[in-house]
């Protein structure tokens, strides 16, 4: 079955009501120039949207790169902190070993007096060791029998120290 609107009084009235004259078409809100202006505005807006999307993409890529760099720096910092902790532990162990060696040296050399020096103690330890180092480095200056005996006594005194 086919129905036609031509016989319907409401459709005929709506059709007549919907017809516009030429002047009415020119006076309507949507003139051709308005449509063209809107079309240009839409093109401009689309261009701006495209530029913003491109800019956003570049910014997102820069952020991802920056986050990657930050992550790498944080990992490096963590590794450095772990390495520093290991070094500190090694330094502590070396300090304890040095302290033990100093005490052993002080005990071994307590009865040996170097010329122009007080007996070895914690207070004059560095000066005492410097004098010993000088004596052994410049043995030719200490060739007299008294100094030879002193050097031999020192050798005997420190012979048992385990390094």
TrEMBL record:
Cellular location(s): Nucleus
Tagged with keyword Nucleus: yes
Regions annotated as coiled coil: 35-97
Gene Ontology cellular-component terms listed: nucleus
Gene3D superfamilies (UniProt xref): 1.10.287.1490
GO molecular function: DNA-binding transcription factor activity, RNA polymerase II-specific; RNA polymerase II cis-regulatory region sequence-specific DNA binding
Record keyword Nucleus present: yes
Main location: nucleus
Record keywords, A-Z: Coiled coil, Nucleus
Name of protein: MYT1 factor
Taxonomic source organism: Spizella passerina
């Amino acid at each position: 079955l086919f129905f036609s609107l031509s016989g319907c009084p409401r459709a005929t009235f709506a059709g007549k009501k919907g017809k516009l004259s030429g002047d009415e078409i020119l006076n309507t809100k949507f003139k051709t120039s308005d449509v063209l202006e809107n079309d240009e505005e839409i093109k401009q807006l689309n261009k701006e949207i495209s530029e913003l999307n491109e800019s956003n993409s570049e910014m997102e890529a820069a952020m991802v790169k920056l986050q990657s760099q930050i992550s790498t720096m944080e990992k490096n910092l963590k590794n450095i902190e772990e390495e520093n902790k290991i070094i500190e532990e090694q330094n502590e162990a070396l300090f304890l070993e040095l302290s033990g060696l100093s005490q052993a040296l002080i005990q071994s050399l307590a009865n040996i007096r170097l010329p122009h020096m007080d007996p070895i103690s914690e207070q004059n330890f560095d000066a005492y060791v410097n004098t010993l180092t000088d004596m052994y480095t410049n043995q030719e200056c200490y060739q007299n029998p008294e100094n030879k005996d002193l050097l031999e006594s020192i050798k005997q005194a420190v012979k048992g120290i385990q390094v």
